[in-house]
Amino acid sequence: MKYIVLSMLLLSSCIGTDGIKDQRKVIGSMASALSKKYPSVENVDCDYLTRRLRLKDNRLVVVDARNIYQFEVSQIERAIPLSKLHEVYPQLQGKEVVVYSTIGTRSTKAILELTKTNPNTKFSNLFGGILDWLQCGQKIYLKGKETKEIRFENDAWNIIPEGYKAILP
What we know:
Elements: H1 2-15, H2 23-37, E1 43-44, H3 46-54, E2 60-64, H4 68-71, E3 79-81, H5 85-88, E4 96-100, H6 105-117, E5 122-126, H7 129-135, E6 140-142, E7 145-147, E8 149-151, E9 165-167
Parallel strand pairs: 1-5, 2-3, 2-4, 4-5, 8-9
Antiparallel strand pairs: 6-7
Helix pairs in contact: 2-7
């Protein structure tokens, strides 16, 4: 994974993220490498999460594992920050929890920790994270309203569709 991230950083510093022709393919490659590294973590794709969100099923919990300052700019519909998970849902048994981050690294690590204390809960990682979510044509929100802004820790992750604005530190 280190090599993928380093390659991505080098690639983006040389050509910029605007020069990446097939953004979804790059995101998929990084997410696939992560899945191979952590085969015990189940992944769901953006189509699956979209269908589950449409059902408005209260058994679905969407968790954002990114930093709180990223969450405060935008998130996937109905998402709560990881830091608030046990405040909002003290009991997770019987819930289906889909966790996401920028590409999937932080969400995968969060799932590995959460399964230790919640062995009877179904946890899934959103394959490709919020980056793939956007590439699938899905929306992100701020306080219930659609937004076109997303915050990244650095420009290397600025792999977003046209029309979105990256907020950088």
